[in-house]
Specification:
Layout (H helix, E strand, L loop, with lengths): L12 H12 L5 H15 L31 H14 L2 E7 L1 H4 L8 E7 L4 H15 L3 E5 L5 H8 L3 E5 L1
Parallel strand pairs: 2-3
Antiparallel strand pairs: 1-2, 1-4
Helix pairs in contact: 3-5
């Protein structure tokens, strides 16, 4: 059995209850979710999400983002064609669309959530993959590495995932 460390955090009881309900809907508990957060932080070399200040109107504001003004909804076939060269470049075994876009209940401006497997994983390659995917789809992208995701999480996403690239 692998050794683990105990981490103690302070959280408001109401927030904890809400998190338990939310994570249970994905087949996770709070510990699983925190572990995923930690692994994703290591994977991307920082926080696994973008920090935003909605009131800030500076150079990095949403209004000045490099993404297209009008969201473009890419079909699954368009995604497959667009992403195949990227998948080959980074030697992916597989790349699956997950989340709202896979379920078809996304908004036009929703981000893209992908779960992937890489032949020779490295943090540098994964961060470059993230940047290339963002450039390709012109939207924010969230990446989940299958090799660090919990079985509960993988089971929860399997029912909706859509294969975009498979070796």
């Amino acid at each position: 059995m692998s050794k683990t460390s105990l981490l103690t955090i302070r959280i408001e009881p109401e927030v904890k209850k809400k998190l338990e309900v939310l994570y249970a809907s994905f087949g996770l508990n709070i510990s699983d979710a925190i572990n995923m957060f930690i692994h994703q932080s290591l994977l991307v070399g920082g926080l696994p999400f973008e920090l935003k200040n909605p009131g800030f109107k500076g150079e990095m504001s949403v209004e000045n983002a490099d993404f297209q003004e009008e969201p473009v909804d890419l079909s699954i076939e368009d995604l497959k064609k667009l992403i195949a060269p990227i998948a080959k470049k980074y030697e992916l075994k597989s790349l699956y669309l997950i989340g709202s876009r896979a379920r078809g209940d996304n908004r036009p401006d929703s981000d893209y959530d992908f779960c992937f497997e890489m032949k020779k994983p490295s943090l540098m390659k994964e961060s470059e993959l993230l940047a290339d995917l963002r450039d390709a789809v012109q939207r924010e992208v969230d990446l989940i590495d299958r090799s660090v995701a919990s079985e509960k999480f993988l089971k929860a996403i399997r029912k909706d995932e859509v294969a975009i690239y498979e070796e």
